[in-house]
Amino acid sequence: MLLLTLWSVLCVASVQARPNIVIFLADDLGWNDVGFHGSNQIPTPNIDALAYSGLVLQNYYVTPICTPSRAALMTGKYPIHTGMQHTVIRGEEPRGLPLSEKILPQYLKDLGYKTHLVGKWHLGHYKREYLPMSRGFDTHLGFWTGKIDLYDHTNMETGTWGFDFRRGYEVAYDLFGKYATDIYTNEAVKLVEAHNKSEPLFLMVAHSAMHSGNPSEFLRAPDEVIDKFSHIKDTQRRKYAGMLTKLDESVGKVVMSLRKEGLLENTIILFSTDNGGPAAGFNNNAASNYPLKGVKNTLWEGGVRGAALLWSPLIKQPSRVANQTLHIADWLPTLYSAAGGETSVFKNLDGFDLWEALSNDLPSHRTKIVHNIDDIFASASITVDNWKLHKGTNYNGTKDYWYGPAGRDGEYSFDLLYKSDAAVAINNITALPNKERITSIRDASTIKCNNGKPINECKPLKAPCLFDIDEDPCELKNLADEKPDILQALLSELERVNATAVPPNNQDLNLRGDPKYWGRVFTNFGDYIHLETPV
Length: 535
Ligand SMILES: *[C@@H]1O[C@H](CO)[C@@H](O)[C@H](O)[C@H]1NC(C)=O
Ligand SMILES: *[C@@H]1O[C@H](CO)[C@@H](O)[C@H](O)[C@H]1NC(C)=O
Ligand SMILES: *[C@@H]1O[C@H](CO)[C@@H](O)[C@H](O)[C@H]1NC(C)=O
Ligand SMILES: *[C@@H]1O[C@H](CO)[C@@H](O)[C@H](O)[C@H]1NC(C)=O
Ligand SMILES: *[C@@H]1O[C@H](CO)[C@@H](O)[C@H](O)[C@H]1NC(C)=O
Hints:
Bound molecules: 2-acetamido-2-deoxy-beta-D-glucopyranose
Organism: Spodoptera exigua
GO molecular function, one term: metal ion binding
Family: Belongs to the sulfatase family.
Structural class: alpha/beta
CATH architecture of the domain at 27-366 and 419-444: 3-Layer(aba) Sandwich
Cofactor: Ca(2+)
CATH class of the domain at 27-366 and 419-444: Alpha Beta
Strand content: 5-15%
Keywords: Calcium, Glycoprotein, Hydrolase, Metal-binding, Signal
């Protein structure tokens, strides 16, 4: 009896000790849109404060577009292994992340976590069983499709238009007109405040920002915030600055609430973009991946190298630029392991448990990355050690360039940084590094390329290209001719992984899913109709 009591006390104790896990997932945020990568144009003091006192994830890769990236985050698998490798799920598409996949919040529930999703889902909604609360999240406030107008919460896509905002399974009409980022901030803070501290918390805040909304006004933020950036001449970029400021402020407020509730000491925070930035008008947006090549939905570094940081008092070697190679599929085993879970529960993952490597600054087990294989676009890219292969490209090569802005003019504001909510909250637990240290971290995480003309120009529609990413992160010097053996080795590796791919599970749109049949709301239409019913 005594033993049994002792045992249950120990169990409870170990459950209590599990760290809280908070993921801030930005949408379409570019490499050069966070202050810690060297741009002075749009201050992100809260995000930066976490980066400098945590880990700047310098060699971190995501997939080039939203649905595949979120699928990898949730499953720990490459999109080629879940059928999610080609573009995104559309509002009228009867498709979702396969139900055969057990996902991150489900695994964390097994460890006793309370699990909450705030914001975007985009992994399938045509049937209730694909929705977040059917797949491991205790609560969800947010939206189901790929993007919304940040104020009216409607999504215009594929020739139709509908409202898309939910509290759980219910349509949240009452939130119409409220700025989405503020809704997420308030909801996240409320969840933190209401959280039962004897249980571990998993909170994922999947922002609408920085994705563009609808044609009436693609990028939206409160006027008074946009007006602070009157010195930015490009109107779209100025609005982008307003959106990003709100996103950064949101991160700060949530971190502060974790501090106030006494949760921050035992919390792991991941801040990550879902894919590279849509720059120079791509997707009607104004992100920057400078000096990297390409944009969102391309396989160049600008499309797949993700702006991200990891923060936690549990990291044993913090305040550094972490050069461990990492892929978004690694978070499932990495966070599960950090939570004290036994990673032998995972079968057939592409992700690695890199918690020890990140925490103790040890070599990463990851030496290869499959950026994607998309046979519909006829494009593929992989990295092996420092070598990156490109075969084919998207958009017929029209996005295979380098875009700004660099944002290197002006000065970095340490004042904003140290006064930010996140900095104040962090300083309550562990000191933020001094200016000198921050300057050196920032310098090391600022990629510098002699952006001259490309050498042996890569024409991926004609022949595969090869780059040494360590030496040439900007993909300027095509080494395919110079290093035929390495090129051949990577082509063989591509062939090997390609043989493991499953076919993409994209479906034709089902016009019965058009919001016009459902009171102008995007719905789980597949629960109400036979999909083959004619319109
Ligand atoms: C908080 O969680 C603990 C452990 O699960 C539970 O025993 C307790 O009843 C919970 N408290 C409240 C107020 O729900
Ligand atoms: C990471 O940095 C260490 C030294 O700090 C170096 O030895 C190692 O080669 C680097 N690894 C990569 C992948 O760049
Ligand atoms: C692709 O680009 C080439 C020139 O770069 C052009 O000749 C060709 O028409 C384009 N193809 C399509 C389908 O746009
Ligand atoms: C942290 O905050 C608490 C509560 O606001 C305060 O009592 C304490 O002095 C602070 N500690 C530090 C190191 O700032
Ligand atoms: C992958 O394999 C399929 C056939 O199974 C083939 O059609 C496709 O071209 C291959 N893709 C690459 C990038 O090798």
